[in-house]
Design a protein that fits this description.
mainly alpha; single chain
Length: 104
């Protein structure tokens, strides 16, 4: 079992059992968007308002986003390790020598 899959398995113990499968999926997907927005808020305040970037707050929000991702994937029956593997394969195919702005 990968570290990602172990995390996902641990995260599932905090799923709200009172929700239906569809409600659980919606909760995870909406939460993912919400948490991404919170990360964006921290970055925006840093870049646009000159505030110091609160690393601890960003780590906290990214963790919440990871939980939502893990639960959404779980709702589809997809292990996080598969999500990571497929994404890595896509990135390798798209950028075989790494990202180069000149070849976009």
């Amino acid at each position: 079992m990968s570290d990602l899959d172990a995390y996902q398995q641990g995260a599932t113990r905090t799923i709200n059992a009172a929700l239906s499968d569809d409600q659980r999926l919606l909760d995870a997907a909406a939460g993912l968007a919400e948490e991404a927005g919170e990360v964006l808020g921290h970055v925006r305040k840093h870049v646009m308002q000159g505030r110091a970037l609160d690393r601890d707050a960003v780590v906290d929000e990214l963790g919440d986003a990871l939980w939502c991702l893990a639960i959404a994937a779980h709702a589809f029956g997809i292990p996080l390790s598969e999500v990571a593997r497929v994404n890595e394969e896509k990135l390798r195919a798209r950028h075989p020598r790494g990202f180069d702005a000149a070849t976009r």
